[in-house]
């Protein structure tokens, strides 16, 4: 089953190095993401590193694991959610003395059927959940922007 590219972007009035410092510290993911409650990386941040995450949506609470797919300092950070195969990334680009950040969710091999069944059963269906995910991306990027610009 194909899945659309989900994406949000923001311009931050802070240098790329400062924004990278924030997005690459995955322990801080709960500060940005409205769904993530904890994210722990095992070992250094590098391709192949694993994470364990705890997510919450209303009364639902669930753990996930991820594998870091790409770390290109000050440019791109990508991790794959092991349970459903989706890939989440932050792409940074210097623009006008600041940084453009694009957060994306891709499903290069589609989304596993078990994940779709669970989203349909517990989260109101895939279309509304995808809207919620994009809203969450926008909220995450706004929180990163606020923190980066505050210094």
UniProtKB/TrEMBL annotation:
It holds the Pfam family Polyketide_cyc2. InterPro entries: Polyketide_cyclase/dehydratase, START-like_dom_sf. Signal peptide: none annotated. SUPFAM superfamilies: Bet v1-like (SSF55961). This is Polyketide cyclase. The lineage of its organism: Bacteria, Bacillati, Actinomycetota, Actinomycetes, Mycobacteriales.
């Amino acid at each position: 089953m194909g899945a659309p590219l989900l994406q949000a972007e923001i311009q931050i009035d802070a240098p790329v190095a400062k924004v990278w410092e924030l997005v690459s510290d995955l322990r801080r993911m709960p500060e940005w993401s409205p769904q993530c409650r904890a994210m722990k990386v095992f070992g250094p941040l590098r391709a192949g590193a694993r994470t364990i995450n705890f997510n919450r949506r209303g009364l639902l609470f669930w753990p996930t694991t991820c594998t870091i797919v790409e770390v290109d300092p000050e440019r791109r950070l990508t991790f794959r959610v092991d349970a459903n195969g989706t890939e989440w990334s932050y792409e940074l680009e210097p623009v006008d003395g600041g940084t453009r950040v694009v957060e994306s969710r891709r499903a290069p091999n589609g989304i596993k059927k078990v994940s779709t069944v669970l989203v349909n059963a517990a989260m109101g269906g895939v279309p509304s959940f995808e809207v919620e995910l994009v809203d969450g991306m926008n909220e995450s990027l706004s929180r990163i922007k606020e923190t980066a610009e505050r210094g």
